[in-house]
């Protein structure tokens, strides 16, 4: 199996948690893993990115080559476009639809969505809305994680274990709430795969 | 674990007694890991931030003098600050093993330059270790301590951002015991009077051949031979990963020499250079090896950054390396026009913002171009809408450049510096100004933390006024205020007064960094020190 994923968003949106949950699932299945991240600017509303590489074979580069990513997984719609050059032609662009507007020249959302729809394989879900309904708005990153699970060749139970691991210290209620969010995201994405 | 964390864990497992560092991206996590480690605490491993990289280097050297193992970590520009002791530690040599970790930043993701600190290792004439991945970083710490104690020299370990901040699985070893306290056998070893230094230096020089021999024998320099000799490839550190990423099962058809230890292994270099028609040198940093091999008269058939095969600057990636092999150009696809820049900015509610707004207004009559700033979150004041500063060069340069500009006649000259940067290297510049009574206005923006790197302890906490008084700033020209929108007019008036004063003024806008509000320890300390006085 192989999965090269670019995670993107704005500092503070929780992309590292997604990476950790997927990472936990990978390690439990004896899959090699490399996860690179951008530190420092995450506190200051800047664009952030994490690179997650899974493979049954040893992984060399910490960076994904341009044109080689299997998926861009983004908590912020405009940020999903920033890494388009990384996406392989058949790759999946999976993104939240809710913009994070902290700059003056944030583009028109219609244009952003139009650009996303130009990507052959795309999934746009209202991760914030889904999260608010089944868990809390803060779980929107877990909703996106759920959407991504269709494209990562690991058992569903391992993904749930990944969530159990990262929220272990927060108790069962929070763990289950985040698993619900993940499953809801997985369901929402399934609509696009029909 | 992160490359940084692998190094930290390795230090603990290899029996180090001390971790010394000043925060600096991408090295910060090394010290943070040791600070959080229960094992480190139980075993009394020193793990506290130093005031700057020079003091951290010297303390590490002191621990080495006493026979124990230590690691000193910093970002690349940090080694500039530690250079005095670093270079001389090669002359004194070590007693207990000493590893200096330099985390370089090709592409300057969070730095002022992309200097390649392998040059420092070459300059000091000591061995350098450059790991290819997280596992090797871990293993090299163990090996590095042994190498250091065998040859009685410090060892430089050089990593870059993409290894420092990338996670992979690492297999660890059982922890070994720390060294015993033990003085150097030669009581003169560490005394660099010329007579001693000359002797020590000759020893260092004479060891060079042994370092080369070690490089030729080490498993960290790997020669992968292959049949197609039309091209030979030399890679340094993680550049190897970018090369093999392009080939199925990492099977490169050309001979590859993977460098992980310097000085260069002469035998292997001679082999690849003589057997291959061309040699491509792939380094995640300056073209240091490329230039050495090319020779001044560029007679050798060596390719790399200097001939345009690879870009002259910036970090590498798999695409660039493949393009270099094929002698093609790689260009990233342009982004759709809808993608706007999302630059880092100061956080909502940051005290630096209120200070800048007041400062901009107070300086309206004097005009722009006279604010000399420093390294920290407040450097972001250069961007719109504040555009409040004119310079940012190196740690502490705000105060000293303001002084130089004032000497030139640019008065008033304002310096903006953070609290942690101030104790790092602002105090000496302030003393210069006080001694000459130069008319500068120094704004020490105190947010109780080392903010940009993630909120580490600031050595300035609760000490700033006393330090300034001790240096000789007149107490009536040390002004503290609480920077909030509500206090704007007061701040402007205060600033105007001090700008007009024909001597050294220190103004301290003081408000806790909003990112540290959840830090219970800090909040308590601040309360104890009585720092949160309103105007």
Main β-sheet, spatial strand arrangement of chain A: 2-3-1-4-5-6
Instruction: Supply the CATH superfamily name of the largest domain in chain B.
Output: Thiamin diphosphate (ThDP)-binding fold, Pyr/PP domains
Low-pLDDT segments, ≥5 res of chain A: none
**Rg of chain A from C-alpha positions?**
15 Å
What is the CATH first-level class name of chain A?
A: Alpha Beta
Looking at how many chains there are and whether they match, the oligomeric state comes to heterodimer
Q: Helical percent range of chain A? A: 25-40%
Query: How many structural domains in the coordinates of chain A?
Result: 1
User: What would you call the shape of chain B?
Assistant: globular
| Quantity of strands of chain B, as a count | 19
Determine and state the CATH class of the largest domain in chain B. Alpha Beta
Write out key terms for the chains shown.
heterodimer; A: alpha/beta; Pyruvate-ferredoxin Oxidoreductase, domain 3; 6 strands; 40% helix; B: 535 residues; alpha/beta; Rossmann fold; 3 domains; seven-stranded mixed β-sheet; 20 helices; 19 strands; globular
